[in-house]
Amino acid sequence: MLEFKDFEEKTIQRNEIFHGKIIDVVVDDVSLPNGGTSKRELVFHPGGVAVIALTSENKMLFVRQFRKPLERVILEIPAGKIDPGEGARPDLTGARELEEETGYRAKTLEHVSSMYLSPGFANEILHVYYAKELEKVANPLPQDEDEVLEVYELSLEQAQAAIADGTICDAKTVFAIQFWELLELKRRNGLA
């Protein structure tokens, strides 16, 4: 890995602004590598997990829900926050969220990627898993009390159309559909 220590910003002082259920917010005074100073507004988040889940009919599982910051309903892949105790095992979060949000379990969860979502101001990392060999659960884990979700199964063409019309507009879900497009390309070329 490349190192860029000459670009590091050193924290001079931290002012804690907010401690919440999901995020913490701070403002740091920092010294810049060029000798100047600045302020950085930072959001700390425990991280999350998203699951790319394809059924045996080659349809992807999505959940429809209202997103208050956007003031609208969107379709997303199943995802959620890493709960205390799950940090070292994000696959456990993925398995839990898949079952809670869709009523499905996977025989295996394969790690696809981990990515920072907004590194300019937040440390939230998202771990993305590919769920293999799905099975519907008779009595799934209950959904979170503060979530209202509806499950959808879309074909690749339907998912692409949902991106085009803005129903799918978040990065993790667009990434999931691009991953699916690559899987399909590999299958067509006999590589999968």
Name its key features.
192 residues, alpha+beta, Nucleoside Triphosphate Pyrophosphohydrolase, four-stranded mixed β-sheet, three-stranded antiparallel β-sheet, 10 strands, 41% strand, NUDIX_hydrolase-like_dom_sf, NUDIX_hydrolase_dom, NUDIX hydrolase, hydrolase activity, hydrolase
Report what the structure shows.
The structure is a single chain. This protein is of the alpha+beta class and 192 residues long. The protein folds into 2 domains: 40 residues, no CATH class; 141 residues, Nucleoside Triphosphate Pyrophosphohydrolase, CATH 3.90.79.10. It has 3 helices and 10 strands. A 4-stranded mixed sheet has the order 7-4-9-8, with helices on both faces. The protein has a 3-stranded antiparallel sheet with strand order 1-2-3, with no helix packed on it. α2 runs antiparallel to α3. The radius of gyration is 19 Å and the shape is globular. The relative contact order is 0.17. Its EC number is 3.6.-.-.
Largest pleated sheet:
4 strands, mixed
Helix content: 10-25%
Report the strand count. Answer: 10
**Global mean pLDDT:** 94
Q: How many whole angstroms does the radius of gyration measure?
A: 19 Å
* Beta-strand percent range: 35-45%
Class by SSE composition: alpha+beta
Low-confidence stretches: none
Q: Within the largest sheet, what's the order of strands? A: 7-4-9-8
- The CATH class label of the largest domain is Alpha Beta
CATH fold-level name of the largest domain: Nucleoside Triphosphate Pyrophosphohydrolase
Enzyme class: hydrolase
EC number: 3.6.-.-
InterPro entries: NUDIX_hydrolase-like_dom_sf (IPR015797), NUDIX_hydrolase_dom (IPR000086)
Keywords: Hydrolase
